[in-house]
Structures
1.
Amino acid sequence: MIRRFPYVQIKTNSLGKYIILYGRGFDFDTGNGLYLSSSNFNGSQGYYDLYSQIASVSAQNPPFSAYPVTSYTVINNNVLQFSLSAFNTPQKLDIIYAGPSGYIKASEGLRFTYIQIVSSFNINFYVSGE
């Protein structure tokens, strides 16, 4: 069976793009709560080791490097929204949400994988075989 993993394309230097996440557990956060991990590591991302002091959670939730999203709105336990900052270089951004029992990455879901910052638009979908 082939699964399609769509991604969102946003042009470089775009301001005011709102991202709405649907999931669960958004009423509970750890650390800053929301992060963007980039494929274009430039040293300005933070290093987050949120679970090293919790043995039952740390093995499944290793440290990660990411940009914290400091301003986001939890609409309810299942809906969260934020405004994406403008990025000036092409890259892939994974959304990470950290809660008390660990974090989840958008790339691990079945409906969405990542935000792709592009210099020009293509209409493509990444296709992965199983």
2.
Amino acid sequence: MNLDLFIKRNHIFKKRITKSNYNNIYNIIKHDNNSGLYILKKIKFELVYLRTIRQVFKKRRIYKQTPRFNNSRYWTFICPNFILTMKAKNSRMGAGVGSFVRVLQIIRPGKALVITQLYTEKFLIKARKYIMFKLKIHLYLKLQKFLKLKLIV
């Protein structure tokens, strides 16, 4: 992403916090009808992490008589709302906040990281395990199958 675009837009420094209670995560997503990966603890999600998520959920080929792609889809809801800055190593105090380093989003518990459609349960369990290992974030999986809610923590 172009970092200069985020530096010019001042409104991304606003704190986007909803006033709902995050103590009970399972009550938050109770009325949500989508399968996907949800955040278990508050994290700082850097936009570099999207590369790993795209790598996991990329389109897979189905080889039967002719190679074709399956119709599975996924969505990520990431909009950056925080910029990390850093001063040079030997800079003195009072020289400002420093240069911009990374763009990230602060995500609260219970928010959907990835919403999926037409992915198998076995694939989503493996994807959750891989993303948790690579990115060191805590996720739980919600599977929506025949209007029954199933949570894997």
3.
Amino acid sequence: MAADAQVNESGDKNMRIKFLATILIVIAVPCGLSATVTVRGSSGNGVNSGAPTWLLTGRSQSLSFTTSTKQATIRREIICIDQDVEDSLPSPTLNLSGSCDSGAYMYLFQVKSTSKNLNLVITNLGGFDGSNVENYGVMICDSPENTIELCTNDPTGTHIPSTITATTTTNSVTFAVPGTFPSYPAGTTQQAQGLTFFVITQQKTALPINLPNVGIK
């Protein structure tokens, strides 16, 4: 009987260990998934024919950013995510000309780099809700109906590294791209070329626009 009790006790201990290990695995998996950034398709922002309603500010020239160990070039663009460019409305409010009527702005940052372990740091985000993962991530070119927006030329998103993570505060987001920075083929002239990040903000008022700052580290 004593031997049987010892076997049962040993078996119970093994079962408890397996149970705890299972719990740890279940807890660990969601944490890993939550670190992956949202991938969004340009088709969700509008089509070419509707560009006057959603394209607030077209692509900028590439600007160079350098640190002592890293370099990148970055383009910018501003989208009215609600497709409400004030000047395109049937009865625009003249005092809000040049804005997104709802105060909802999408900022695009297209990055090209040959550096490793690059961090893209975006600050001064007015009206930013970093707790909502849909408010930041990577923009891909996914629609032949929208060929005039900055985006990553990877229509299926299969070449977006799953290791990209984002750290947010109430007014900033930092995208970390570990390892070698990915490269992509050029899209149309308007889509340009590079890994394109997006950030969405909701201002209390349409103007003035709270333009974000961008940098690398």
